[in-house]
Structure formats: C-alpha cells, structure tokens
Amino acid sequence: MQPQPPVNASIPPLDGEGPLWLQIRRALAQAVLSGEWAAGTRIPSELVLTGHYQTSRMTVNKAIQSLASEGLVARRPRIGTIVTGRARERPVLEIWDAADAVRREGGHYGYRLLECETVVSGLDGLPSIRILCLHLSDGRPFQLEERLVNRAAAPALACGLLRDVSPGQWLLANVPWTDARHSITARRAGPTVAEHLALGEGAACLLVERRTWNDDLPVTLGRFWYPGDDSEGSARFRPSW
C-alpha cells in the first residue's frame, strides 16, 4: 500500500476581509507560498476545513479548486489535496489579486475605490464600467489600478458592489475567463499616478497591462501601476482548469 503524504495540522487563520471563500483561498495560498506547507504535504481535508472555518463545504471546495487551477495544489483521488512541487515557483505573470500579492509579502492589505462610472464606449468601444482604485500595503500605496470591464461580460457588476470589494476580487468570484494577454513596461508617473502613489511626477513606475477574454468575448482591460525600477516583459497564457 502506498504511504500517505503527511497532513499539516496547522490551519492558517483568516484575515476577515472580503468573501469567505477568498479569505480561505488567501490563507491556504499563504501557507503554501511561505513554505509553511512544504511540497508533498497533504493539506487538511475539505471536511476538516469546513468545520474549522464554520462554513459550507461548497465554500471550501471553491477555494481549493481555485488553488488547484493555479497549480499550487493537486487533488489526488483516495489520497487528498497535495501541495505541488512547483508551488513556490509560479510564474510572475500568473493572475493574482492585489490582496494576495500584498499578503504574500507579509503586508496588511487595504483598498480604496477612487472613481467608478458607466461609460457608453469603453473596452473595444463597448459599454463598460470604468474603475480607478488604490491598493495599499501597511497603509502605503502599493498599486494604482485603472480598469475597464465589459458590461456584457459582467452584467451583474455595479459600482456599489466595489465599495468594499476590489474589482479583481469581484471578477475572480463571478466572471470566468479563458484567455489573457499580459505585458509589463517601464513608465514615468504622470500627475494622476504620481498623486495616488505618493511619488514625484516623472518617477519610475512599473506598468502591468492585462486583458482577459471569455472565449471571444472581451472581459476586462486593467492597467496596474507600481512604484519601481525599469523593467519589461510580456506573455500570453491560459488558466490551467
């Protein structure tokens, strides 16, 4: 009989921010990415996590399935869910929510919705929601997000839903995507970017631009500004589910 992988009995706490399944996903991802749960570790079962977090099995399953689709864990019949050997080597161009990125670096995440409106001609000339928001790490600007969301791809999205939940978190929970294009370039901060990132105008920034589709339907175009040094790269990729 094949020996079972060890179970890590330490279940990480939740941060209390956002939908419960995303809190569980972040907590489990942090345990994996920090090395607390090493490669080959069998994580606690859905039943154990359901009892620990006092939620439904469906909520826990959604969180674990998200981690599996990102390659952090693998689900093995009759064995359980195992931390993958490459879990800490995920490509920098994977789609991660800003809150996940902040917490992976050990920071306390914060979020502010700055602007939100419906526009007639937005993404690819289609009716869209235009969003400007700021993501914080330990109270300091971490990322300025400019985003257009196609209304046809996300008909349930409204500005009122984004007061406490970031666009990335809402989209991740509610809108599927099948394809993405991602580029990274070095830019200088203009007046708006400089103001919100607390930089001098013309300061070096890293700009990540990301487009996603659901088959042939455009979903979103995001421009994510970070304080940083000159760098450049690009990739096109698909989710692994």
Per CATH, the superfamily of the largest domain is Chorismate lyase-like
Largest sheet at a glance? 7 strands, antiparallel
Strands side by side in the biggest sheet: 3-4-5-8-7-6-9
> Percent helix among the residues?
10-25%
Low-confidence stretches: 229-241
Computed over alpha carbons, the radius of gyration is 19 Å
The structure class reads: alpha+beta
Helix count from the secondary structure assignment: 6
The total tally of domains equals 2
Q: Count the E strands.
A: 9
**Average pLDDT figure:** 84
Quaternary structure state of the chains depicted: single chain
Which sequence of SSEs, written as H and E, runs from N to C? Answer: HHHEEHEEEHEHEEE
The global form is: globular
Q: CATH topology of the largest domain, which one?
A: Chorismate lyase
* Overall CATH architecture of the largest domain: 3-Layer(aba) Sandwich
Could you name the key traits of this structure?
single chain; 241 residues; alpha+beta; Arc Repressor Mutant, subunit A; Chorismate lyase; 2 domains; seven-stranded antiparallel beta sheet; two-stranded antiparallel sheet; 6 helices; 24% helix; 32% strand; disordered C terminus
What does this structure look like?
- This protein folds into 2 domains: 20-89, Arc Repressor Mutant, subunit A, CATH 1.10.10; 98-237, Chorismate lyase-like (Chorismate lyase, 3-Layer(aba) Sandwich).
- Helix content is 24%, strand content 32%.
- The chain has 6 helices and 9 strands, in the order H-H-H-E-E-H-E-E-E-H-E-H-E-E-E.
- It has helices at 20-33, 46-53, 57-69, 98-104, 167-174, 191-197; strands spanning 73-76, 80-83, 109-119, 128-137, 140-150, 179-188, 204-214, 217-227, 233-237.
- A 7-stranded antiparallel sheet has the order 3-4-5-8-7-6-9. Strands 1-2 form a two-stranded antiparallel ribbon.
- The chain is globular, with a radius of gyration of 19 Å.
